[in-house]
User: What shape does this take?
Amino acid sequence: MATFRLQGSRVLAVDMTGDAVKAKNGSMVAYDGHVSFKKMTGGGEGIRGMVTRRLTGEQMTVMEVRGNGTCWFADRATEISLVQLQGDKLFVESSNLLCSDAALRTGTTFTGLRGATQGNGLFTTTVEGTGQAAIMSDGPAVALRVSGDYPLTVDPGAYIAHQGNLRQKFQSGVTFRTLMGEGGGEAFQIRFEGDGLVYVQPSERNTIGGDV
Assistant: This one.
């Protein structure tokens, strides 16, 4: 299995010994050794994945990187975080996924109102299996623990990914105080319950809910 390591916070180095990884198309910045690159269809899921992503509107263009050597990846100087999967599933916006072990399965899943409030659509990308993935964020990402005693409420514009046994609940942030002009947050929020991790970034996307 390929070895993922960070060089600084904005460059991912992947050491390969005959292994393969899937990476965002065009994200290679350097490599040494004998490495080949091949563009993949459907986010690495073949023709079926290509059709599914076209139907759902979830865009993801990836390349397979295979060989012996080290390859360095980066994208627009965004911050990179490593996620270890142990047979579980990572939910991540396709625009925030930089690289993953080739053995990890990728797909799409329905997000419902969460995706709608983020302005990213009703579907998102999943990464499942055992291995590593690298996700990107606007500023250093923070992994927040959710447990049975400590549910978590997240601003949709700051959310980038989550993993574990988590349930999502869409809720409105509009209260009497916000209607009176005394609010200071998003009109819509995501509440996570269960056991797992939620990754957030210190920067907010524009969402359809907007500030209240």
